[in-house]
Amino acid sequence: MRPGAPMGCEDCVSRREFLAKSALVAAAAAVAVGCGNGQIGPTAVTLPNGNGASGGNAAPGFKVGNYAGLATVGRLVQVDSYRAVKRTGATTFAAYSMICTHQGCLTVLQSNAFYCPCHGASFNNSGQVTRGPANQPLTQYSTSYDPTTDLLTIGS
């Protein structure tokens, strides 16, 4: 038994140990806060290639059948970190950047539309602004679909 520990408490933490560890955690938290950029919540996205054309982690093409949502005309499906695709017809598709045109934050898909959590901008499923502060539509990419291989390629 440790000196000063209550009876039956061999593994208990002493008040001194608790205060020392608490002070260390508080100091580490203060340093971590000082390293931040002063923003809480979502921030602007920096794309690996600078223009979003490849979406950073995107493959040059993908099988449409791998995305169940793309079986429905008009439905948006996020296909990689920075892009979403909508089927517009039996063999036609539209692809959009998910980067908000207001300040470059990453949008999310909500109710088959784009929503920017940074400042509240909204875009319909064709990338058009439905609520500011954004005043430009989302970037639309060219697409090429081969129905024989079910391969959709997204351009820049």
Global mean pLDDT: 79
Largest sheet: 4 strands, antiparallel
| H/E series | HEEEEEEEEEEE
Question: Structural class of the secondary structure composition?
Answer: alpha+beta
CATH architecture of the largest domain: 3-layer Sandwich
Q: Which regions have little confidence, pLDDT < 50, spanning 5+ residues?
A: 36-58
* Tally of helical runs: 1
The backbone outline, from C-alpha atoms, is elongated
What is the number of beta strands? Answer: 11
CATH class of the largest domain, named Mainly Beta
Can you tell me the number of structural domains? 2
Can you tell me about this structure?
This protein is an alpha+beta fold and 156 residues long. The protein has two domains: 36 residues, no CATH class; 94 residues, 3-layer Sandwich (Rieske Iron-sulfur Protein), CATH 2.102.10. It contains one helix and eleven strands. A four-stranded antiparallel β-sheet has the order 2-3-4-9, with no helix packed on it. The protein has a four-stranded antiparallel β-sheet with strand order 5-6-7-8, with no helix packed on it. A hairpin with a 6-residue loop joins β6 and β7. The longest helix is centred in the N-terminal third of the chain and has 20 residues. The chain starts with 14 loop residues before the first helix and ends with a strand.
